[in-house]
Write a structure and sequence with these properties.
There is one protein chain. With 58 residues, the protein is an alpha+beta fold. It has one domain. Strands 1-2 form a two-stranded antiparallel ribbon.
């Protein structure tokens, strides 16, 4: 599976931190042709939230 995008809605920590109700990540644009991507950041910045929500819609 190769994730192409992720839309996060209703996650209080992300909304409060960024001032957004909806966060959309376009992995194709962010990767810019890279074969490997690292998600890095300080504690409590949403890395686990992003990884936990990378599943296909049913």
């Amino acid at each position: 599976m190769q994730p192409l995008s992720l839309i996060l809605k209703g996650f209080r920590g992300i909304r409060d931190g960024l001032g957004c109700d909806l966060l959309s990540l376009d992995f194709e644009r962010l990767a810019d042709g890279a074969q490997l991507i690292a998600i890095a950041g300080a504690n409590g910045r949403g890395k686990t939230t992003v990884m936990d929500n990378m599943h296909p819609l049913c």
